[in-house]
Amino acid sequence: MTKNVWIFPGQGSQAVGMGLDLAEVGKDKFAKAEQILGWSILEKSQTDAAELSKTQFTQPSLYVISAILADVLKAKGAKPDAVTGHSLGEYSALYAAGVVDFATGLELVKQRSLLMSEASGGAMTALIGFDRTQLETAIAQTENVILANDNSADQVVISGTEAAVKSIVAQVKTKRAIPLAVSGAFHSPLMAEASAKFATILERTIFNDAEIPVISNVEPNGATTSGQALRALLTQQMTSPVRWREVCLYLAEQGYEQAIEVGTGKVLTGLVKRTAPSLALVNISTLEKAIAF
To answer: For residue 76, how many other CB atoms are within 10 A of its CB?
Structure first.
């Protein structure tokens, strides 16, 4: 059997029209989601890109779509040897691993997305094509900015105060620097207030031990099935970097042969390809692809 990992996308993978093909197969989950959220994911999916890109809508929508696709795969008898996700995608991974049930996971995502959407006073910029040593040196010498998303050797996101982020962009030569349309400095210490509020929500949430090992963004050099450990890692996630490049390196080192992206878009398969080219890649972004798999 091929040693495979299911990977779940995060914010940035959303697309207008996503999930419409899942309306029938996922009707119970869409109905439950509307009950929890107070709005319809399928209706929101058909609005414009700017509306769908708002954190409070993007995160729950991606979680629900990934959960439905994971259900379809499991119903066909597919089972991963491990699961992982990029930032928000970690919640989809926890659902797939049986750590939280669907409604519990969605309630967490709802609260997380609201807290993150309310954050202010920070900025994030994606950098593509740069000298990593120069970048890391500049960050080390600049206050109030960190490497928030280490996606691949040549693609990262920096996060911090607007002045600090602009300072790094001015200092470091890059092929492209793309300011992100976000409300705050996600995955940085500037999210401490939101993170503290979210920690109290996590504390009163039941986390089961995982049925499938989970690889965390916060500690990417190992997998765990401990529900208690996974809860502790999530309390750090909002203020800690997403170490996706290291997740990919870990997968290659541990002999994983196939990465299956379960959810909207192809962002993660592209990133895995750059860092761990030995892994075969499968993208399950639609019902048709899930059934064919």
So the answer is: 12
